Amino acid sequence: MSNKLVYGIYDDEEVLLTAVKEIRSKDIDIKEVYSPFPIHGLDHALGLKRTRLAIAAFFYGALGCIFAFAMTYYIMIIDWPMNIGGKPSFAYYLNMPAFVPILFEMTVFFAAHLMVITYFFRSKLFPGQTASNPDVRTTDDKFLMEIESDNDKSISDLMKKTGASEITVKELT
Amino acid sequence: MYTVAKNTKTISFALMAIGLIALIFGFTNIAEFFGIETDPHRAWTSLMINNYFFLAIGAFAIFFVALQYVAEAGWAITLKRVAEAISSYFIVGGIVMIFIIIAGIMHWNHIWHWMAVGIMDPSSDIYDPIIHGKEAYLNPSFFLGRAIVYVLGWWYAAKKLKELSMKEDAVGGLTNYKKSITVSAIFIGFFGYTSSMMAWDWIMSIDTHWFSTLFGWFVFSSMGVTGFTMIAMLSIYLKRKGYLEYVNENHIHDLGKWIFSFSILWTYMWFSQFMLIWYSNIPEEVTYYLARWDDYNFLFWATSAINFIFPLILLMSRDTKRNFSYIMVVGTIVLIGHWFNVFLMIAPGTLKDHWHIGFIEIGMFLGFLGLFLFVVHRALTKMPLLPKNHPFVDEAKHLHI
User: Fold this and answer.
1) What pLDDT, in 10s, does the model give residues B217-268?
2) I need a labelling partner for B398 at 20 to 30 A (CA). Which of A45, A52, A107, B120 fits?
3) Where are the domains of chain B?
């Protein structure tokens, strides 16, 4: 287990991106990168796995669709059948077009809201959470790379070489 | 520079020959010797459907080129020439369309019911007061005049944009690019009105009594799906032949997103139009759907399902949009689905329940496909496939999504 954290601050996202590529090509594991905005291609450079949020969204949408189906079926057919446009057919499939907007809206509603909640949950963002970024400037105009290693000297040199403007080493206790 | 492969040329001529046979079979009674039942009315309808289908693809390609200029978008520049080549087909379809309209006015065909002799004459047996009330808009000279304005206007924009693009290649600099933006902005404004009016005129007025306020957008969304699909499929074809060096899966991915979103837009329009009419159930509106429901039942439901479910499921994932073979398969399904959509917009009004899909329809489709491929490939040979002085060409080369 390594006991030192090295923070390298970069001024430019292009420099950071090439630095990430170079450091990773030397088989050094980058623990985390903090940035004020999403950097195009960074997830790929860091070797992050593709997000499964899209798959979750599909299931949330399907859940919403099923919920809306159950809801309209119970309300409009079982509990209190209604005469729709002069079509008192009392069967779900015959009244179906009238329910499509509800099915659609519920699908969108469930997918959107549950996706946001999932995202917050996975990112450990909730009310009362304290900021976990090591340097507040990463919310403004600086980019920070975090590497966990025993060999802080060589890591610092490598960061300096790849264009870091500022390096701090922190002991892990 | 692009040279048309011999196979492609042979295939397009063979398709045109099939189309010519279908045309002869449709309009004469030669086919009766072969036991094929024909009727000129059916042949005219088939001509109208197939010509319109490819005309819409050509018209949408003009819109696509103009849209990239107005949005100052960079991603599509490496496949801009493909869209420009498709846009040069438009005038061919436009001329055939004007011919069909003149033939209608001369009473050679009965595609547009309101053109019938005596329908606006109170002393006539077939007098129709509702149609007579629409005379100010639906009269032969104004109708033909409008058609000529659409065709000439769109053709001029296509020609101008292509010329400016070629000049830009030769001269460089930003002057031609800025002029293209002006031309595109004027064209998009013009197209916004005229594409809707074209849909009312050429297609909606077939069912003269009926009208729908979103019909123009419904037709436009169908044009969009076929147009994007054709641009994507032709780009993939050229890529596979070894051209379009700078087109890769990122560009096809973006086109795939367009096909996906326009398919959903089409469904949205289809359903919005259908549900309101189904819900309110007013006789003068619902007849339009009853004609389709009664005589075209399976085709009617199958078409809306094909055009929605296939693109929705098959193009939802990122990987499928980046796969060339996949786009080719989905594109074929979508093109067939939207051909049926055009068929269902036109045939129920002209042929009522006497419709067929046989050699005449399929043959003419193949014929127009051959003509389309011939014109588009010939246009491709006349220009370099990469616009070299376009200000955003490097952005398009390095597109990454």
Assistant:
1) 999 999 999 999 999 999 999 999 999 989 999 999 999 999 999 999 999 9
2) A52
3) 6-30+37-382
CB contacts < 8 A (A, B): 21
Pair A57, A105 in one domain: yes
Question: What ipTM is given for this predicted complex?
Answer: 0.80
> CB–CB of B279 and A85 under 8 A?
yes
Inform me whether the C-beta atom of residue A52 falls under 8 Å from chain B C-beta atoms: no
- Nearest CA distance, B275 vs chain A (angstrom): 6
User: Within 10 Å of residue B366's Cβ, how many Cβ atoms?
Assistant: 20
Structural domain including A117 reads: 53-122
- Determine, yes or no, domain membership for A104: yes
CB-based contact, B280 to chain A, within 8 Å: yes
Give me the number of domains chain A comprises: 2
Q: Is A167 helix (H, G, I), strand (E, B) or coil?
A: strand
Shared domain for A71 and A26, answered yes or no, is no
Contacts of B280 in chain A (CB under 8 A): 85
- Give the CATH number for residue A165: 3.30.70.120
Residue A131 belongs to some domain of the structure: no
B149-174: average pLDDT: 94
B99 pLDDT above the threshold of 90: yes
Beta A32-34 vs A166-171: how paired, if at all?
Answer: unpaired
Are the Cβ atoms of A98 and B275 closer than 8 angstroms? Answer: yes
Q: Minimal CA–CA distance to B390: which of B65, B3, B156, B60?
A: B65
Query: What gap in Å lies between CA B280 and CA A98, rounded to an integer?
Result: 11
